[in-house]
Amino acid sequence: MLTRRFLGALAGATALSLALAVPAMAEPIVIKFSHVVAPDTPKGKGAAKFEELAELYTNGAVDVEVYPNSQLYKDKEELEALQLGAVQMLAPSLAKFGPLGVQDFEVFDLPYIFPSYDALHKVTEGEVGKMLMAKLEPKGITGLAFWDNGFKIMSANSPLLVPDDFLGLKMRIQSSKVLEAEMNALGAVPQVMAFSEVYQALQTGVVDGTENPPSNMYTQKMNEVQKYATVSNHGYLGYAVIVNKQFWDGLPADVREGLEKAMAEATVYANGIAKEENDKALEAMKAAGTTEFHEMTEEERAAWMEALAPVHEEMAGRIGAETIAAVKAATAE
Ligand code: LMR
């Protein structure tokens, strides 16, 4: 029979040997993932999925902290913060890489360059996508994935049926010279503005209108301050998920592998929900009834395409004629 004292000693010894067998828990590596949209958008949901999978596949060695809605940084600041290492991961829209000096990304902003998500994926999932991501490396940035949002609609407080309807309207755009050229081609006055400021600018009349995929328009409640919208699908808005290169290269190889696996799966997820999220947002805004949505006629679409066609030629020097040609060749496949 074991005495109480012996049992106590045994328990103590077991606890000690267990403590010795389990290495001291290291502090997790923190990845701050900052973005500017709402959590219930394709990007917000993609980021949440990455957080879940990254922690799973690294067995808790990594702690992903997602900061949505420009909580940490606005558009321009977040890119600076990434380069300085104040945050580790972002997913800026492809229209926001110009100020970094990587104007090639503005190819995604060319009006009507992608007839569908399928055509776009031939670029983002192929050689052209890799070539574009490689251009980030000299900036101290590693590109991990392309995430979809969707095709943009135009909104304002007056109907936007034909190009002349844009004359003199102040239209908020992202920081892309191609979008500036697009609005100029329509006769509008483009105004670059951070995403977090758009709702208030629309509400107070600082700008008259804007363009965004339905999911962004709805989750920022822009439909409450825009009387009209045209489902023009005239351009694409998507993201590059990027990390600070020095941080990424410095990770232990097994951790990086776990994160790569998490990113690959989060990308499939994010790109799988993007269209549906946008379709649902458009339906929700129609049901809300604060904005009148116009579906374009063939003639109207032809008139928009004609007005916007010169932007391709005009911007070839900035984007790079080779990049535009590579994108057009990939989408024509
Ligand atoms: C915008 O500024 O309109 C968008 O880029 C926001 C976003 O990240 O989708």
TrEMBL record:
CDD domains: PBP2_TRAP_SBP_like_1
Keyword annotations: Periplasm, Signal, Transport
Any one cellular-component term (Gene Ontology): outer membrane-bounded periplasmic space
Superkingdom, natural source: Bacteria
InterPro entries: DctP_fam, TRAP_DctP, TRAP_DctP_sf
UniProt entry tagged with the keyword Signal: yes
Signal peptide region: 1-26
GO biological process: C4-dicarboxylate transport; transmembrane transport
Statement: the UniProt record of this protein carries the keyword rRNA-binding: no
Main location: periplasm
Cell compartments where the protein resides: Periplasm
PANTHER family, A to Z: C4-DICARBOXYLATE-BINDING PROTEIN DCTB, PTHR33376
Family: Belongs to the bacterial solute-binding protein 7 family.
Protein name, entry field: C4-dicarboxylate-binding protein DctP
